[in-house]
Write a structure and sequence with these properties.
CATH superfamily of one domain: P-loop containing nucleotide triphosphate hydrolases
Radius of gyration: 19 Å
CATH topology of one domain: Rossmann fold
CATH class of one domain: Alpha Beta
Helix content: 25-40%
Structural class: alpha/beta
Strand content: 15-25%
CATH architecture of one domain: 3-Layer(aba) Sandwich
Distance between the termini: 29 Å
Number of helices: 8
Largest sheet: 6 strands, mixed
Number of strands: 11
Length: 262
């Protein structure tokens, strides 16, 4: 399967000569809590449109993703995505998260509980503190009509639940709502933090395939972090294996899993 090519991290899957890589990441950060110290130093480049960062809990996967998104700032490093430099410590250049035009989907989806499905999706299109209309078709505000929001509601088959709140949704509907909110702002790349961890096996399998088909349709660069080998097999065009804050060259996902103490 093509998804298993480039199993090692580092510079495998390099961009064609003269072209910028899709992902050019070099970040370092030291975290301290009491007597505990965690040092992360991650470096890789890749021309792949679908990259899966794989490793056990505590490997530094989420921390790496948060630094790419701009939620956490590294101590030093350089981050470039799709040819755009988002941060460079040597140049003193760090874009704020909103300025990076990246979509980040949290593991728990982070939907606003007081907003409906439609409002949650539309929130990504709003600036300031005013919530989107609950029913934009009924006495709408001048700025409430949004074709992009309706497009993603239709794409993810959310119209029947568009007026529902997150607690009224199934796990799959919550994930589709979070994906729609991530994509409605037309990001330059999609970052997904363990997107299937909270779902049962059958739903996880179905939504993995939906995500793969969506990414192939859009051609949008996508980075997924996971500790699930099946997600690596299905989604990865290139795998970046991580362990203990480092990219582990020369190790396949099965090797990493075997090396981690039970």
């Amino acid at each position: 399967m093509n998804g298993m090519n480039g199993m090692n991290g580092g510079d495998s899957g390099s961009a064609a000569e003269g072209a910028a890589p899709t992902w050019d990441i070099a970040v370092a950060k030291v975290l301290r809590h009491g007597q505990t110290r965690f040092e992360l130093d991650v470096r890789f480049t890749s021309a792949a449109r679908r990259v899966v960062v794989y490793g056990p809990s505590g490997a530094g996967k989420t921390l790496t993703l948060r630094m790419i998104a701009g939620i956490t700032q590294p101590d030093r490093g350089r981050i470039a995505v799709a040819g755009h430099v988002l941060g460079d410590s040597a140049a003193g250049h760090w874009l704020a998260p909103r300025e990076r035009h990246l979509a980040y989907m949290f593991q728990d989806y982070a939907l606003f509980p007081h907003l409906t499905v439609r409002q949650n999706i539309a929130f990504a299109r709003r600036r300031g503190w005013r919530n989107p209309d609950r029913n934009p078709g009924r006495n709408p505000r001048p700025d409430s009509a949004d074709a992009a929001v309706e497009r993603w509601i239709a794409t993810f088959h959310l119209a029947p639940v568009a007026a529902h709140y997150p607690h009224q949704l199934s796990g799959g509907q919550r994930q589709r709502t979070a994906l729609a909110r991530a994509l409605v702002s037309e990001p330059r790349a999609l970052l997904l933090d363990e997107p299937f961890a909270a779902l049962d096996t059958g739903l996880r399998r179905r939504l993995r395939q939906e995500l793969l088909e969506l990414q192939q349709q859009l051609g949008l660069p996508m980075m997924v972090i996971t500790h699930d080998e099946e997600e690596v097999r299905v989604l990865a065009e290139q795998v970046i294996p991580m362990h203990a804050g480092r990219v582990v060259l020369g190790m396949a996902p099965g090797d990493i899993a075997a090396a981690v103490p039970a």
